[in-house]
Specification:
Distance between the termini of chain A: 10 Å
Number of helices of chain A: 10
Family (chain A): Belongs to the HisA/HisF family.
Strand order of the largest sheet of chain A: 1-4-5-6-7-10-11-12
Oligomer: heterodimer
Organism (chain A): Cytobacillus citreus
CATH superfamily of chain A: Aldolase class I
Function (chain A): IGPS catalyzes the conversion of PRFAR and glutamine to IGP, AICAR and glutamate. The HisF subunit catalyzes the cyclization activity that produces IGP and AICAR from PRFAR using the ammonia provided by the HisH subunit.
Largest sheet of chain B: 8 strands, mixed
Order of helices and strands of chain A: EEEHEHEHEHHEEEHEHEHEHH
Protein name (chain A): Imidazole glycerol phosphate synthase subunit HisF
Number of helices of chain B: 6
Order of helices and strands of chain B: EHEHEHHEHEEEEEEEEEEH
Pathway (chain A): Amino-acid biosynthesis; L-histidine biosynthesis; L-histidine from 5-phospho-alpha-D-ribose 1-diphosphate: step 5/9
CATH topology of chain B: Rossmann fold
CATH topology of chain A: TIM Barrel
Chain lengths: 252, 212
């Protein structure tokens, strides 16, 4: 039986792992390679690295980080952040990443999803969707630029569109829940997961093991991602998986 | 030495890094003459079946691989590389494969027999069920391995299926006949068991070298 995936996310800035609380406050939490191996041993199913460097130098450092992680890690990992062209995708995937995640660039140039999928296959192309509830819209709106810029897209419509364009997976972050540790946005996760035919990773809001169970049982997510609760050892991948097993959620 | 076939369709980096971690010497090449000299070959691959066959044909590798396995030398296809070992695929129109093993590559329907939709690609960790003894499984137990694929092999020749996984249908996960092996999942991304399976293949290659 296919298991539900637990994915620690590491925000990387200039080669170091940091975590943004609601995308603003940053705290240093360690070395990417060391953390990656730690999570592999803990039973993490996959890892996501998000490059939040703003500089050209930082981007170059990221390729080095990807190369060192890939040489040590025997589980899959995705890299997102600052990927704006087919060239960027090639750079990261050739350095050893298994998937790239597109966010702002996909909204600005949806054709990029198709180009990437044609070149590398859909399984390499993750579209990251930052969603925030919009009362006027009566639904969630897609945001870009690290959650700073509202786009024209409503979340479900965009999710359906990226599937048509060739995306292999959706990384869905609730901006309303992110950093709050009160649980994943279950309504959002369920709405997107049921609307699309590809796997959906729930992200934003994980505070304890129960939250993961709800993301799978109620939110219908295929995978769930968290950062700070793992980095600051508030819980562990092992603990979360033990709890999920108890609740009848299939895990590795 | 092991040869990794470079035909522009694979994440060669992760396979080669996995071999490095095990201290297994290898070389990467697209040259059929060089590859013919390898003690064992790995055919990796992600992307579309049709593009892959076109690339193999263009580089003269289709005939090389067939000639290579006829010599009794070990070949391991990974993911798309495994699918290519079979007769044909319905990906982007019917395309002939290497035809080394009997079976057809089909797309997951995305709807189960009860009419409920399920996700395609089959992405993530699934239980590997060992269904037939094989030298490649020596001393190994079933565990979870990492899959990413939208197409799977359908075969009535169950004798070529060494291990399977269930994802709506029975998915051949390790296949083999004689010196030809294939893995639908990514051993290089499947943690401990994945590394053991790769090691097992390299040991088969070494054993063969020892006797010849």
């Amino acid at each position: 039986m296919l298991t539900k995936r637990i994915i620690p996310c590491l925000d990387v800035k200039e080669g170091r792992v940091v975590k943004g609380i609601q995308f603003v406050q940053l705290r240093d939490a360690g070395d990417p390679v060391e953390l990656a191996c730690f999570y592999d041993e803990q039973g993490a199913d996959e890892l996501v690295f998000l490059d939040i460097s703003a500089s050209v130098e930082g981007r170059k450092t990221m390729v080095e980080v990807v190369r060192s992680v890939a040489s040590q890690l025997a589980i899959p990992f995705t890299v997102g952040g600052g990927i704006n062209s087919l060239e960027d995708m090639k750079r990261i995937l050739r350095a050893g990443a298994d998937k790239v995640s597109l966010n702002t660039a996909a909204v600005n140039d949806p054709n990029l999803i198709t180009e990437g999928a044609k070149f590398f296959g859909s399984q390499c192309i993750v579209v990251a969707v930052d969603a925030k509830y919009d009362t006027e819209l009566g639904s969630w709106r897609v945001y870009t630029h690290g959650g700073r810029t509202p786009s024209e897209w409503e979340v479900i419509a965009w999710a359906e569109e990226v599937v048509k364009l060739g995306a292999g997976e959706i990384l869905l972050t609730s901006m309303d829940s992110d950093g709050e540790k009160k649980g994943f946005d279950l309504a959002l996760t369920k709405a997107v997961s049921e609307a699309v035919s590809i796997p959906v990773i729930a992200s934003g809001g994980a505070g304890n093991a129960e939250h993961f169970a709800s993301a799978f049982l109620d939110g219908k997510a295929d995978a769930a991602l968290a950062a700070s609760i793992f980095h600051y050892k508030e819980t562990s991948v092992l603990e979360v998986k033990a709890y999920l097993k108890e609740k009848g959620v299939p895990v590795r | 030495m092991l040869g990794i076939i470079d035909y522009g369709m694979g994440n060669l980096f992760s396979v080669s890094k996995a071999l490095e971690r095990m201290n297994v010497p290898y070389f990467i090449s697209e040259n059929s003459k060089d590859l013919m000299k390898a003690d064992g070959l790995i055919l990796p691959g992600v992307g579309s079946f049709k593009d892959a066959m076109e690339q193999l044909d263009k580089l003269g590798l289709t005939s090389m691989i067939k000639e290579y396995v006829q010599l009794g030398k070990p070949l391991l296809g990974i993911c798309l590389g495994m699918q290519l070992l079979f007769e044909e695929s319905e990906e982007n129109g019917l395309t002939k494969g290497l035809q080394l093993l009997p079976g057809t590559v089909r797309r997951f329907s995305g709807v189960n027999t009860e009419g409920s939709p399920y996700k395609v690609p089959h992405m993530g960790w699934n239980q590997l069920n060992l269904v037939q003894p094989s030298p490649i499984l020596q001393g190994l137990k079933g565990d979870y391995v990492y899959f990413v694929h939208s197409y799977y092999v359908e075969t009535s020749h169950t004798e070529v299926v060494i291990a399977n996984s269930i994802y709506d249908v029975v998915v051949p996960a390790i296949v083999g006949r004689g010196n030809i092996y294939g893995m639908q999942f990514h051993p290089e991304k499947s943690s401990v068991l994945g590394m053991e399976l790769l090691r097992s293949f390299t040991e088969l290659v070494n054993e063969r070298m020892g006797v010849s």
